[in-house]
Design a protein that fits this description.
This protein has 47 helices and no strands. The chain is mostly helical and 825 residues long. Among the domains are: 118 residues, no CATH class; 247 residues, Alpha Horseshoe (Serine Threonine Protein Phosphatase 5, Tetratricopeptide repeat), CATH 1.25.40.20. The protein is flat, with a radius of gyration of 52 Å.
C-alpha cells in the first residue's frame, strides 16, 4: 500500500535510489533481502569470518543469537553489532521513516483529490445531500424548477418515500400541483403504486377535487375503477366529497360502474346519502343509478340518509320516486314471470312459472310487479324508514316519513313499533307527532307489545319518564296490561326502581293489588328488587297500604314481604313492616321464618330488630323442615356476630333431625372461629354424637378441615368410633386428606393416637404407607420405630428418612400382623 501510494503521488523512483531510499519492492524489513545482491555480496563475504566466529561463540558459550529486538536497536546505536547486522537494522529504520513520509503524502493527495471533485458537484446536489426530504418540500411549496434540477441530478428520488409511505406523485396530487404531477409523469413516475392507505393516484385526485389533475389522469388512460384497501373506487370518493364537476367528467370520459359496490357493498348513492351530497346524488340518478339497491347489511339509501339526517337527499329520493310513479315507471325492479318460446324451462333456468305444463309455448305470462316504495323498505333488523327517523331523533324527518305514508304500527324483528322506539328514548314530542298523524290507530298502537310483552306504557315506566307516561294514559293506553311474566306497568316500575312513575300510576288508578305470575305484589317486588331511593320506596309503600293488606300476603313460594326484606337486609323496611304488625313467625314453603333467612345471610341489624320484637324469642327456637333453627343457619355460614347475638338471647343447642348439633355443622364447614365460640359457651358439645355416632371430630376429618381437627384435638376431643366402627383417622385416610393427616401426625397427641391404634386394623402407619406414602416419607417421626434409649446410653442420630419403596415392600411381604423392626444403624 505504501509503495503504491508513493508511486501515485508522483515521486520518481530514480531520484529515491540516488538519495539512498529503498521502497518495499526492493527491501523487506523482516528478512533484510535487498534486490541488489551484488552491492552487499562483498560486505557479506568480508564479514563472513566474523559471523562464523560469532556462531562458534554461541555454540560454545550457550549464547543466544536471536536476542530481543530492543537490545538489537540499542546495540546498533552503540556500535556493538557487526557491520552486516548494523547495516540491516539501519535499513529498517530508514524504511519506517520513508513509510511515514509516504503516508503523509497519501493523505495530502486524497485531500487534493477531494477538493478537485467537489468543484464539479452542483449546489443542488449539495442541498439534496444536506436535506434528503428536499423533494417533498418542493412539492409542498410548489417549486417545480428546483424539483426538476433534483431529478436531473439524481433520478432515483422519484421513488423516494416519506415518513408516511407516500411517493412524490402522491404528495403532488394531494397538493393539487398540476405542473409537478406532469413533470413527475414525464420523468417516469409510476401511477400504479398505492400510498400507505392503499389509495392510488386516481383516488387521491378524487379526494383532492382538482378538476385539471383528474382530467389529466383520465387522459392517461389509467384505470378509474381501481379499488383501495377498503374497496372504494374514485366514484365513491367523489360522491363522498360532493365533487360534482369531477363526477360529470368521470361519467363522460371513463367507463365506470355507476352502481359500483364499495365498503360493505355500499353504492355511490349510499355515500351521497351519508354525507348529504345532494348534487352528486342528482347527477347519479340522472345517469341511471339504482336508488333501491341495498348494501351487504341490507341498508338502503333511504335508511342511510335518515340515519345521518341528510334532509336534502331524503327529499331528492322521495321526489325521484314520485316522478317515476307519475310517469308510470316502476320504482323497483320487475319480477317478470315469462316463458320464452325459444327456451325450454329446465333445471337452472332463470325463467319460472307457476304451472309450466299448463302454459303453451306461444303464450306469455302477464307481468307481475312487486311495488315497493321507499317508506316500506326494511333493513337487516327489520327497521322501516320511520323506525330509523325516530331513532335519529329528528322530528322533521319523522314528519317527512309520515307525510309519505309511513305506518306507525310497523314492527321490526323484535316486534317493536316506532312508538316503542320513541318511548325508549323518552321522546314525548315524537310520540305526539306520530299519534296525532294517525288518530284512528292510537288505541291499537298503544296496545301492541314487543317480544318481551312490553307495551309503550311499560317502556315509559321502565325509563321513569313521568310526562310521557301521563300522555300515554291520557291517550287510552291500557294501564293494567301485563307482559309475558304477568307484570303490569306498576309492578315493572317497582321491580326496576322507577318510583316516581309508580307513584304517578297509582294516582292515575293503577291496580295496586295486582300480582305477577309468581303471585308477588308491589310490596314483594320492592323488597326483592331494592333500588336506590328509599324515600320514593316509602312513599309507594304508604300509598299501596291505603286500602290493601299487601304486607301480609304470601307469594307462590310462601314468602311474605318481610321474608324478602329480612333476607336482603332492608332493615328500614323491616322496622316498618314490624310496626304494621307483620308476624315474624310466618314460614315459607321450606319452613323458613324471616329469622332463618336473616341469620343465614348474616344480616346483623335485621337479626337485632327481629330479636327485639315481641316474637323474637319464639322465632329463635323455630325449626325448618330439616329441624334446624336460626343458630344452625348462622354457624353453617360462619357468621360469628349473628351467632353471638343468638346465643346471648338464649339460643339453645338443639340437634336437628339428623342429630347434628351446631358444633357438628360448624366442624363440617370448617368454621374454626364458630367452634371456638360454641365450645366457650358449652364445652359439653365437644363429644356429642349424632344419630350415626359421629362426633364433630369425624365431620372435621371427613371434610379435610385441618385447622378444626387440630383445635378439637387440642380441646381434648375423645377418639371414639362411630356406629360403624370407623374412627376419624380412618375417614381421613380413606379420603386421602393430606392436610388433615399432617395435622394429626404433627399434633402433640400423636403418641396417644399411635398407641391406641398400634397392632389393630386401624394402624395409622400401615394406612400411611398404603394410601399416602409421600406424607410418610416427608413428615412422619421415625423415632417411634426405635427402641427406648437408656439415660446413660450414647445418643445417636435418629433415622430421618427411610425409602418409601422399601417400606411398601415390607408391607407387601408381611401380610400378617408383624412388627416392623428397623436397625439403629
Amino acid at each position: 500500500f505504501l509503495a503504491m501510494s508513493t508511486t501515485t503521488i508522483g515521486v520518481r523512483p530514480k531520484a529515491r535510489r540516488r538519495q539512498g531510499k529503498y521502497d518495499a519492492a526492493q527491501f523487506h524489513p523482516l528478512y533484510g533481502t535487498h534486490s541488489n545482491e551484488q552491492e552487499d555480496s562483498k560486505t557479506d563475504d568480508s564479514n563472513r569470518g566474523s559471523l562464523s566466529h560469532q556462531t562458534d561463540i554461541d555454540h560454545s558459550g550457550n549464547n543466544n543469537t536471536g536476542s530481543n529486538k530492543n537490545d538489537d536497536i540499542t546495540n546498533v546505536t552503540n556500535g556493538s553489532y557487526p557491520n552486516s547486522r548494523r547495516k540491516r537494522l539501519s535499513k529498517t529504520v530508514n524504511w519506517v521513516k520513508q513509510s511515514v513520509v509516504s503516508m503523509s503524502f497519501a493523505e495530502e493527495a486524497h485531500y487534493r483529490w477531494k477538493r478537485c471533485v467537489q468543484k464539479h458537484i452542483s449546489n443542488v446536489h449539495r442541498e439534496l445531500q444536506a436535506n434528503p426530504m428536499l423533494p417533498f418540500e418542493c412539492v409542498r411549496q410548489n417549486t417545480p424548477g428546483l424539483l426538476r434540477e433534483l431529478l436531473r441530478e439524481q433520478h432515483s428520488i422519484i421513488h423516494q418515500v416519506d415518513q408516511k409511505g407516500s411517493l412524490l406523485i402522491h404528495r403532488a396530487i394531494s397538493a393539487e400541483a398540476l405542473e409537478i404531477v406532469q413533470m413527475l409523469v414525464s420523468f417516469g413516475a409510476d401511477l400504479e403504486i398505492p400510498d400507505e392507505k392503499g389509495n392510488y393516484p386516481c383516488h387521491l385526485a378524487a379526494i383532492s377535487g382538482n378538476l385539471e389533475i383528474f382530467e389529466y389522469l383520465i387522459d392517461l388512460n389509467i384505470d378509474m375503477s381501481r379499488k383501495n384497501n377498503e374497496g372504494l373506487e374514485p366514484i365513491h370518493f367523489l360522491a363522498m366529497h360532493d365533487h360534482l364537476e369531477l363526477l360529470n367528467r368521470l361519467v363522460e370520459l371513463a367507463q365506470v360502474d355507476i352502481n359500483a359496490s364499495g365498503e360493505c357493498g355500499s353504492t355511490p348513492i349510499h355515500y351521497c346519502c351519508i354525507h348529504d351530497s345532494v348534487r352528486c346524488l342528482e347527477t347519479l340518478i340522472a345517469h341511471g343509478a339504482d336508488i333501491y339497491k341495498a348494501n351487504n347489511h341490507k341498508t338502503y339509501p333511504i335508511h342511510a340518509a335518515l340515519e345521518n339526517v341528510s334532509r336534502k337527499c331524503i327529499e331528492v329520493l322521495f321526489a325521484e320516486e314520485e316522478r317515476k310513479q307519475r310517469g308510470n315507471e316502476q320504482p323497483t325492479r320487475k319480477l317478470l314471470l315469462v316463458v320464452n318460446e325459444n327456451e325450454k324451462p329446465g333445471r337452472g333456468s332463470r325463467r319460472w312459472s307457476f304451472r309450466r305444463s299448463s302454459i303453451s309455448p306461444s303464450k306469455e305470462m302477464p307481468q307481475m310487479v312487486t311495488m315497493v316504495n321507499h317508506i316500506n323498505l326494511v333493513d337487516c333488523e327489520g327497521d322501516t324508514p320511520l323506525h330509523t327517523a325516530v331513532r335519529s331523533g329528528d322530528l322533521e324527518q319523522v314528519k317527512l316519513c309520515l307525510h309519505h305514508g309511513a305506518n306507525i304500527m310497523a314492527i321490526q324483528n323484535d316486534q317493536e313499533t316506532p312508538v316503542h322506539y320513541a318511548c325508549s328514548k323518552s321522546d314525548l314530542e315524537c310520540v305526539k307527532l306520530m299519534l296525532e298523524a294517525r288518530p284512528n290507530q292510537i288505541e291499537l298502537c298503544l296496545s301492541m307489545v314487543n317480544r318481551s310483552g312490553y307495551t309503550p306504557l311499560h317502556i315509559a315506566t321502565l325509563y321513569d319518564h313521568v310526562p310521557l307516561l301521563e300522555y300515554l294514559v291520557e291517550q287510552g293506553a291500557p294501564i293494567d296490561a301485563t307482559d309475558s311474566t304477568g307484570l303490569t306497568a306498576l309492578l315493572l316500575g317497582a321491580k326496576k326502581g322507577s318510583y316516581r312513575s309508580c307513584c304517578r300510576l297509582i294516582d292515575l288508578g293503577a291496580n295496586v293489588s295486582s300480582s305477577d305470575a309468581n303471585e308477588r305484589n308491589i310490596v314483594h317486588l320492592m323488597m326483592l328488587h331494592y333500588q336506590s331511593g328509599i324515600q320514593g320506596m316509602m312513599r309507594i309503600f304508604e300509598m299501596s297500604l291505603v286500602s290493601q293488606d299487601l304486607v301480609f300476603r304470601k307469594d307462590s313460594s310462601g314468602c311474605t314481604p318481610l321474608h324478602y326484606a329480612a333476607e336482603h337486609g332492608r332493615h328500614c323496611m323491616v322496622r316498618c313492616l314490624l310496626s304494621l304488625g307483620v308476624t315474624i313467625l310466618d314460614r315459607n314453603a321450606e319452613g323458613d321464618t324471616p329469622m332463618h333467612l336473616a341469620a343465614q345471610r348474616g344480616r346483623n341489624k335485621v337479626v337485632q330488630y327481629l330479636l327485639e320484637s315481641p316474637e323474637g324469642i319464639r322465632a329463635l327456637y323455630q325449626e325448618d323442615v330439616f329441624g334446624q333453627n336460626p343458630l344452625h343457619r348462622a354457624v353453617t355460614q360462619g357468621h360469628v356476630h349473628v351467632t353471638e347475638m343468638l346465643l346471648e338471647k338464649g339460643g339453645i343447642f338443639r340437634k336437628c333431625h339428623a342429630g347434628n348439633s351446631p358444633l357438628h355443622l360448624a366442624a363440617r364447614y370448617g368454621q374454626l372461629e364458630i367452634c371456638q365460640v360454641l365450645l366457650k359457651l358449652s364445652p359439653a358439645m365437644l363429644d356429642q354424637v349424632n344419630f350415626e355416632g359421629l362426633t364433630a371430630l369425624h365431620f372435621a376429618a371427613t371434610n379435610d378441615c385441618s385447622e378444626v381437627v387440630d383445635f378439637l384435638l387440642t380441646s381434648g376431643a375423645q377418639i371414639v368410633p362411630s356406629n360403624d366402627g370407623v374412627y376419624f383417622v380412618t375417614d381421613a385416610l380413606n379420603r386421602r386428606h393430606y392436610n388433615t393427616l399432617k395435622a394429626i401426625i404433627m399434633h402433640q397427641r400423636w403418641p396417644e393416637i399411635w398407641n391406641q391404634f398400634d397392632g389393630t386394623t386401624h394402624c395409622v402407619l400401615d394406612g400411611l404407607i398404603r394410601e399416602i406414602p409421600s406424607l410418610y416419607a416427608v413428615t412422619y417421626d421415625f423415632s417411634v420405630l426405635q427402641r427406648e434409649k437408656d439415660i446413660d446410653e450414647r445418643i445417636k442420630d435418629p433415622l430421618h428418612r427411610v425409602s418409601v419403596s422399601f417400606l411398601q415392600t415390607v408391607v407387601r411381604i408381611t401380610k400378617t400382623k408383624f412388627s416392623i423392626v428397623l436397625p439403629l444403624g
